[in-house]
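Entry 12.
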Amino acid sequence: MSTHRLTHSTTSPTSRLAGARLVRRVSLATAMLAALAAPGAAARAQGAAAGFEFRPFVGAYVPTGEQRDLLKDAVLLGAQASWLVRPALAITGTFGWAPSKDRISSGDQTLDIYQYDVGAELRAVSWLAGGTWDFTPFVGLGAGGRTYDYRDLDVDASTNFAGYGALGGDVGVGAVALRVEVRNYVSRFKPLIGGGGGETRNDIGVAAGLSYRF
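Predicted 3D structure (tokens):
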């Protein structure tokens, strides 16, 4: 293997098991909140004004399973824009950047990861609404692309498909809200240098952002 190749690696059974458990837990939590949100979404589907939200966010990129054998945890920075079609339904576009590290290439190489996607959010009726603040849980599904780009190596960037499921909530005070969100990403991953077929990989994004409502 070349010293500058992010290709295949041996994955321990413990790593695979931990990744699988995490995926199952996030998926189960998403399904449970979707069941809670559905009645509220139906109740609020009539007569709602559209609106917009913009939020910068900061968080963590956490590779799981086989992806964790190749990439390191990293800070996650980015921004989102949401269009509220109705209070129970929003369309959200996201751009994020994580400066990860290649675990198997020499020189502690930085690998910039760019994520860009669009998805739908199903929002439940706001809890504790009516006072000075409110809490609104949501679930989401979406898809987009992901680009891996070595910062210092003369290697072409690689772009692949990625889809996600999201779970989170907004704590709002007037025109401002604090959002906490967890995303479970499933993506297509190909060796960044050299040949080899693509594989399905998994990672988690955890972020907190400040929303501005218009």
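Annotation: Strands lie at 51-64, 74-86, 89-101, 110-123, 134-150, 158-173, 176-189, 199-213. The chain has one domain: 13-213.
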